[in-house]
Specification:
Order of helices and strands: HHHHHH
Number of helices: 6
Largest sheet: none
Number of strands: 0
Length: 121
């Protein structure tokens, strides 16, 4: 799969996930309550997911978004591990790795974004 196509697919995943949190869908509010997280945290995560999705769609920002979303997904993996939600550990880990891959494959864009010299690769 081409890197841009993977970024677009991930953007869709994060739009749907972020929107579910911001719309307070029952399965999200129930999950955050079960994990012992305040609902305000759910809204923060939802907003970060939507912002990351937008970043994935913008070629100049997609590497940064990929790395930031992979860091965000570390928290999801840890939460699912802590609560023994083994299937969701696998799902979250897959999303984390895909987001990291998008960031890594486009890291030359990240160098350009922060004013560094772009390298071939």
């Amino acid at each position: 799969m081409k890197t841009r196509a993977l970024c677009y697919l991930l953007a869709l995943v994060f739009v749907l996930s972020g929107a579910a949190k911001l719309l307070s869908l029952p399965f999200e509010t129930d999950a955050f309550a079960r994990w012992g997280y305040p609902l305000v945290f759910m809204y923060v995560i939802g907003a970060l997911e939507l912002a990351g999705a937008v970043g994935l769609l913008l070629p100049r920002l997609s590497a940064l978004a990929g790395f930031c979303l992979s860091a965000l997904m570390l928290g999801a993996v840890a939460t699912h591990l802590r609560h023994g939600e083994w299937v969701m550990v696998g799902v979250a880990l897959g999303i984390l790795l895909a987001a990291f891959w998008c960031g890594w494959r486009q890291r030359s864009d990240l160098r350009r974004l922060f004013g560094g010299r772009a390298s071939a690769g």
